[in-house]
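Chain A, query sequence.
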Amino acid sequence: MRLTQGTFSYLPDLTDEQIEAQLRYALGNGWSISIEYTDDPHPRNAYWEMWGMPLFDLTPDDVESAMREVRACREGFPSHYVKVTAYDASYTRQTTALAFIVNRPAVEPGFRLDRTDAHDRVVRYGLRAYATAQPPGRRYGEGDA
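Chain A, predicted structure.
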């Protein structure tokens, strides 16, 4: 099951040239770049691990610096989801302007929907990633970072 979060998630994976173009667009708008990764892709897991500090004050000419960080994160966590987020500070608060996935595990096991009967005929549903059945570091097979 292919994880669909953020912009472009229904398209084929972006190439490095396409990622660079998106980074250039974000930097051209004055947005800050953040790179995040996770091995728990639950849709409500909005707080992925940060790869370094957010990249503030970069210009479109600095796109290679941002790409270098994207590549380093993908090399450090090849079996994790890696996401680029661009924040627009013009609203004077942290506002996501653009977010897209730049790396995925080779196998994406998907999610399980759990149904639980509660009081007074109330039915509750929960979503759980199959990957989280394994401890962190072993969720996507051998060699998982």
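DSSP finds two helices and six strands in the chain. The helical segments are 16-28, 63-76.
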